[in-house]
Amino acid sequence: MSDGSVESNDDRNGLLEKTAREKDCEIVLPKDNELQLDLDSKQALREFRETWLICCDAPVFKNAKLTWWRSSGGNVHVVIALASKLPLTVEDRIRWQTRLGSDPVRDRVSLQRVEYGHDRPVALLRPRNAVVKDLVIRQQQVNIE
After folding, report:
1. Burial level of 120, CB count in 10 A (0-12/13-18/19+)?
2. What's the rounded mean pLDDT across residues 133-138?
3. Domain tally, the chain
4. Residue 143 is assigned to a structural domain of this protein
5. Do the Cβ atoms of 65 and 137 come closer than 8 Å?
């Protein structure tokens, strides 16, 4: 919800399913070791690249795998699979997403969903015809064009 309000769990799941159907998308739910970023502008993409240069040496990001695609609106959706098998809490993953440049309103609402006990507080939509690109992140470089 773009206004920052939090819907009930059933409403959230119903809205997510409905939106996915209407946009011909699949719902991508994160695993315990994955971050999901919603980069809604060139500025957000730039912030992601700049922040990555600072964060990439952190142990949690060593040998991370990046998967990205264009959203139905043309923005960039990113999933970062952390090589570490140590699961992060949902709250920690959301905080990392925000630090890396993900849509801050989306992430604040996701944190509220966690507080309200939603079973799917974080999700991305991937168009069924999206070109999904994988890239192993090495040497402080992230190339998304």
Report:
1. middle
2. 68
3. 1
4. no
5. yes
